[in-house]
Amino acid sequence: MSSSEHASMLASGICSQMSISYGIAALKGRCPAQADGVAAVPSFTQMSPEMDIDYFAVSDGFFGSYAAKHLVGRLHVAIAKGIEDELVADTPRFVECPDDVDGWWRKLVLDAFRVVDDELVASVRNGVPAGSPAVVALVTKDYLLITSRGATCKAVIYSNEEVMPVQLTSERRPEPYKQKEQENVQDTGGHVVGSSSNQEDDILFRPYFPKPGVMMVERNPRDKFLILATGRLWDHVSSAEAGSFIQTRLHTSSLDILAKELAELAMRKGSLGNVTLVIILFNNF
After folding, report:
1. Burial 220-258 (b: 16+ CB within 10 A, else e)
2. Which of 63, 152, 171, 226 supports an S-S bond with 231, CB 3.0-4.6 Å?
3. Domain 9-282 fold
4. Lowest-confidence range among 127-136, 166-175, 205-214?
């Protein structure tokens, strides 16, 4: 599912054998149209339920509606093909390198971004295509794979009344910042299995399509919910404020209504553009 072109949108659903539920809000605010992209695709590979993976994504429409919606609407297709091709390969990489789970996923997701970016370049006849800022979450039984491109979109996990921000951007950051980011995750009960740091494949991404950052976080039974949102939410609502807002309303409203109310909070606090977010509730917390 993806957001409509000209109107605000709400949606909700249940996936992963009812262990996850989600709510979506994409509000256009004072903009003439909703240009952001948003998608939720449960169990999107042909290997489901053997490989049960749920896909959630939001993308900022800063570079245009078409680019944002193309990214979130096609990325899970490219990831699924990468998984299926790998599973039927003569020598799958996960068999050759069984201890490099994070490296396997990282390569698969980066390859999928390249495929989708190439599709966009091929489809744009006028102007310079650019890779939309986005944040993507692949939710598996054991891990959360968070992928982010650009500095405007952000993923935040809430666990045991604590806030665990997981923000990865394409901007090169100093090593102390990366180390502190991982410490923040671990201090709140998460375990960083791996994150992107290899610069060699940067050259495979065009200047207007910066390399995404990838972080794999081990799931914790205490995790409550995950929020993916564009910057027009986070510019006006802090991670702690968003978490408190959702936490106090979890048992009174459906997730799509909660998402809508959180987007409206950002607008009341000054956001003028599109506000797009997904709330993913881990029902087994």
Report:
1. beebbbbbbbbbbbbebbebeebbeebeeeeeeeebbeb
2. 152
3. Phosphatase 2c; domain 1 (3.60.40)
4. 166-175
